[in-house]
Design brief:
Domain Secretion system C-terminal sorting: 523-592
Number of helices: 2
Domain DUF7619: 378-504
Radius of gyration: 28 Å
Helix content: under 10%
Pfam family, one: Por_Secre_tail
Keywords: Signal
Structural class: mainly beta
InterPro entries: DUF7619 (IPR055353), Leu-rich_rpt (IPR001611), LRR_dom_sf (IPR032675), Secre_tail (IPR026444)
Number of strands: 47
């Protein structure tokens, strides 16, 4: 069979055909058969394919009215040049093979999906539109590797805890950023299993490791180069070994919503703590919630609940490791006899780490999140955890985002992709950090596009997941500017679900203060030697203190009163900002310490 180049199997009532034994086949005619799904993927010789409802001559032909062909797979066929298709039941076409073949489709009104290379998606879209096919999903996500032949740079990253060289006994070092350069720059992050991958064509490549706290770690090798003279599926393997520089504790904690808060329904949240330092840490996390508007239901990880606080204990958290728990509450209905929840109400949450001795960045040991109660669900969304407004002093600092997704279909979703086009005028994409993901994720950053690809996620109907990330806003932004992020979420071969726009406004300090008069918040004395008193008409939940660079330097929680006092503990003098968080919302106030 290997010697056959021309094969004619007209009118054989075939319901299946295996092309793989015909390694040199160039011409194939299957007219008059009943094949519904034809897989010709990875065939090296086929150069054209035609399925039409006319008896014209064609190199590879199928003529079987009434139409049977629903799916044709030509992925990985490097010599394919032209594809002509006509089938009233044609649904999916796979053409991701590293070449820009010409696709012509006629009289195929049911076509839903075409997978092709990035370089040809625009041309295919135009060609299909000329035939009236304007509702076809075209992308590259039928696989997460390039079409056709390509090379791979890969390796495993481990943390050498005992400083005796990395071996199989050492823990993986997940989510560290790696950059690749061949004149242009791309990025990826170490996956949950410790592996990283770059896919390339021929050329010279340099890979550089970029841990988030570079002063705390030594990566060996910190950078390496390799060359590929061709793209014949070469593989270059370079494992990386990470050791610590000294001893530095650095924990962070976050709260992120997994659902909207709707009166009368359950709402879910993610509490995540992450070790950014280079020591192994144990401790606890306290999650404070608004007990007057919601009731605790459950948490995925073991927890202790007391009043309005949920506490998690953790032990032996390795460097760069993170742990997260999903926490479920029931939001009070509007008919609650004493404490109803209604659309527009504000729910305030605070996550705080127990004392972390010598933490080099105590500012991220606490995290505040405020959520507005609404009357509708949107399971596929993006949320900025800092809210819809930030003070001007936070320009150039990290903003955290969570992208939530839910499979609304009736069948499991095998592969999921979250795609984000980052506005370079708003964000420094080089600062992007992947912090947590619900599934094993391969991240690809090219230019200003970030793609989070979850292969074999197998997300069941109604199942949900998320991606948690952070990146810095541009330092060139000004008060009054607006930042926006959104995402496209792909479930298998379906059209992407476009999320909401997560819009964050940068408030000017004067604008914020104009909204704070004596009847809403009173802060005195101002100027102060350090101690300030705060009076408000609403119940104060927490107060955050920011320095003039926008860094949170201390936090006071669990106040639950209309009056409180605090001492600005910084030894520095100058301008500070108080973020006063109440049960009705939050406000900023400038304080001068002299």
């Amino acid at each position: 069979m290997a010697s056959i180049k021309n094969l004619n199997l007209i009118n054989n009532n075939l319901t299946a055909f295996n092309i793989q034994p015909f390694t040199n086949l160039e011409i194939l005619n299957l007219s008059g058969n009943k094949i519904t799904d034809l897989d010709m993927s990875m065939h090296s010789k086929i150069n054209s394919f035609k399925y039409i409802n006319a008896g014209n001559y064609y190199t590879v032909g199928m003529l079987n009215p009434p139409n049977y062909l629903k799916t044709i797979n030509l992925n990985g066929c490097p010599n394919i040049q032209t594809v002509d298709l006509e089938s009233s039941v044609l649904d999916k076409v796979f053409l991701k093979n590293g070449v820009n073949e010409t696709l012509t489709v006629t009289n195929s009104p049911l076509l839903q999906y075409v997978c092709a290379d990035d370089s040809q998606t625009t041309a295919i879209q135009s060609s299909l539109a000329s035939q009236g096919l304007t509702n076809v999903n075209i992308n590259t996500y039928c696989s997460f590797v390039p079409g056709g032949s390509y090379n791979t740079i890969t390796g495993l990253v481990r943390f050498d805890e005992n400083n005796n060289g990395c071996d199989t006994n050492d823990e993986i070092f997940e989510h560290m950023k790696l950059k690749i350069s061949d004149g242009t720059t791309g990025e990826t992050f170490v996956k949950n299993n410790g592996k990283y991958d770059f896919y390339t064509q021929a050329g010279n490549f340099t890979v550089t490791a970029e841990p988030e706290n570079p002063a705390l770690f030594t990566v060996t090798p910190a950078t390496f180069s390799t060359s590929f003279p061709n793209n014949n599926n070469n593989v270059f393997t370079q494992d990386l070994c990470v050791t610590k520089n000294g001893n530095a504790n650095d924990l962070e904690v976050l709260i992120a919503p997994l659902t909207n808060a709707v009166p009368g329904f359950d709402a879910k949240y993610k509490v995540m703590w992450r070790n950014k330092g280079n020591t192994i840490l144990s401790g606890n996390v306290t999650f404070t919630f608004n007990a007057s508007k919601m009731d605790f239901v459950s948490s995925v990880l073991p927890s202790a609940v007391s009043g309005n606080q949920v506490t998690f204990n953790f032990a032996n958290l390795k460097p760069y490791a993170n742990t997260a728990s999903e926490v479920t509450f029931n939001i009070h209905p509007p008919t609650h006899p004493t404490n109803p929840a209604n659309a527009g109400d504000q729910l305030n949450f605070v996550a705080s780490l127990g004392v972390v001795p010598g933490d080099i960045n105590p500012a991220d040991n606490t995290f505040n999140y405020q959520q507005t109660v609404i009357n509708s669900f949107d399971p596929n969304d993006i949320v900025c955890l800092q809210g819809s407004t930030i003070p001007a002093v936070m320009i150039g600092n990290y903003l955290h985002y969570i992208v939530n997704f839910e499979n609304l279909g009736t069948a499991p979703a095998t592969n999921i992709v979250v795609e984000m086009d980052i506005n370079p005028a708003d964000f420094d994409i080089s600062s992007l950090q992947l912090q947590n993901a619900s599934h094993q994720v391969y991240t690809k950053v090219t230019g200003n596009k970030a793609e989070f690809m979850m292969k074999s996620a197998n997300l069941g109907s109604g199942g949900h997941g998320n991606i948690l990330l952070k990146m810095k806003s541009k330092g060139t932004l000004n008060p009054g500017d607006q930042l926006m992020n959104k995402a496209n979420i792909y479930f298998d071969y379906n059209f992407p679900i476009e999320t909401n726009d997560a819009v964050t406004n940068i408030a000017g300090v004067l604008k914020v203060e104009e909204n704070l008069n004596a009847t809403s918040a009173e802060v005195y004395p101002n100027p102060t030697k350090g101690e300030v008193n705060i009076n408000t008409e609403s119940e104060i939940k927490a107060v955050e203190v920011y320095d003039n660079a926008g860094r949170i330097i201390q936090k006071q929680i669990g106040i639950n009163a209309r009056k409180t006092a605090l001492t600005i503990r910084s030894e520095n003098t100058g301008v500070f900002y108080l973020k006063i968080i109440t049960d009705k919302g939050s406000m900023m106030k400038k304080v001068i310490k002299n």
